[in-house]
Amino acid sequence: MAKRAELQIVTANHLLEGHSVFLGEDGWTADHHAARIAATPEESAELEALGRVDEAGNIVVGVYLVDVALDASGDPEPIHYREKMRVRAIPSFWPDPVKARPQSLRPRGDGEAHHVSL
Amino acid sequence: MYRYDEFDTQFVRERVSQFRGQVERRLTGALNEDEFRPLRLMNGLYLQLHAYMLRVAIPYGTLSAHQMRQLGAIADKYDRGYGHFTTRQNIQFNWPKLKDVPDILDDLADVEMHAIQTSGNCIRNVTADPYAGVAADEIADPRPTGELLRQWSSNHPEFSFLPRKFKIALTGARADRAVIKFHDIGLRLVEGEGGQLGYEVWAGGGLGRTPMIGIKVRDFVPTADLLRYVEAIMRVYNAEGRRDNKYKARIKILIHEKGGEDFRAEVEQEFARIAHDPAAPVEKELARIQAFFAPPAYEALPAESEALAKAKLANPNFARWVRVNTRAHKAPGYTIAVISLKPKGGVPGDATGDEMRVMADAADAYSMSELRVSAEQNIVLPNVKASDLFALWQMLDRAGLASSNAELISDVVSCPGMDYCALATARSIPIAQEITERFAEPVLQEQIGPIRIKISGCINACGHHHVGDIGILGLEKTGAEAYQITLGGDPTESAAIGERSGPGFPAEGVVDAIERLIHFYLGRREDGETFKQTYHRLGHSVMKDALYASH
Fold this sequence. Notes:
Distance between the termini of chain B: 55 Å
Number of strands of chain A: 6
Radius of gyration of chain B: 23 Å
Oligomer: heterodimer
Strand content of chain B: 15-25%
Helix content of chain A: 10-25%
Structural class of chain A: alpha+beta
């Protein structure tokens, strides 16, 4: 990846279900618009570390940072086309989001072991 | 068809129960992902872009109706109602949940199937001519050898950690429909002196980032010696194949770096060292396996069916399907029927649970309960009476499975691409869909004639783009999908690697470019020429220019 974008969010795959998830304020969510946004390299590192805690805790797998930009409503949208496709959670040729997304998969704070404060 | 013996059954069931335990330990956290990944991969379970993906082996591409029905049931019960047949004659389920996978494997074991060695650096599922055992141009059925290789290579202690994955393909026919020259080992049944059967042995072929045509290692290895000979090749590769660089670890690189002569000499030396043991259980086992593949009792039928002739006259659509989608069978009055999984606008190789059930029912009613999967991602009914073709076609047509396009321009081969695959650099399915829509007109398709379009969404070439008459490779160029076109590839006995044309095209320009090339070909072809023949007559640079001409 070339130059680091200004903003980033953290993504992974849900261990049990396999689908893509994003680290939000209250844990992992399938809705990337609800993802927490890191605005500096330090915040990115902290956010990623937080994601890794849940990887170690066997909630998610394959944690990584995704470059985003804010759309007109102020929601984060990935910059790269691969990530744009991934946030849709279905093949690009499927007619829109029938994407059967559970709202929040597992709230954070479900056990102290998973709780890390920023 | 081969049926599991007690040992096979026990082996597969034990593996399921081991994997069930591994999944449980993964879910409790006793195994972390680094520990679990190799275990899940050994059982065909990948993590893809949107979900887990389970790749199920279909040994030498042969399926019973019962097995096909079970695949449909799995698609409905655990997945999203469909599966994807691949260029390696496997089926992939795109949305299984981790916790369900042991149950899926149990359901597969119920019908003598598994997902073992569909991933990892081991000998993968053995592939074969989809018309094996029934093709008119076949010397003998290669599948007993395929089954022997499957058993021998399953959990083979010496060959479970090879430098890289290893793929073996077989054919018993003169025409190569198994792409043997592009496999790590390709085997072609031939008749030796005195009618003795044996194999012509090829090695070091492959596609991917370094496409290569295999070299012939030996003109003839008697069937009884084949396993020893394959073992000799495996040993040379296992000992000397590069483990320092994943991209140079396939046997093709070893043979290329070493040179064919040296490689052959080492294989022969190793072969001589592996003592021939006349009491070896191999021959007994081969004889046992062969009994399962004895030809069915074909009825004595006239070569031409009057009923068929009448139905064709009365129904031009049916006549077209027969013309395009049936192939010559070795038994008079029988035919091989191709069920195209390439409907207009469809996803190449995809079939819903309902479609799998219809195909299973069709096999039960009209093809002695047997089906095949082809490297072209279609399903084949190998044993259809010509007089049953009309009833079969009606059944398929009602289910939307009667596309008349086998080996025509809309019979596009495509990997899943970025719509599913974590490795992809671009999408491939939407390009395939656009091609099948653009060239949907049946009369035009027949006029264009046989042509292979193959699409891969990354350099790993699962869509076999290097061997398409027209190959399309999806790449990333400055933050967008770009498609590079190759021309002149050939997967058959006249194997050729496609030559790159010129600058790539953006997604919205690819199909226009192909259409320009096809119109150019139609304008310049001589009587009866195929695309391939015109390409060779006019030459690469003339044909390639037609892609770019903007008038």
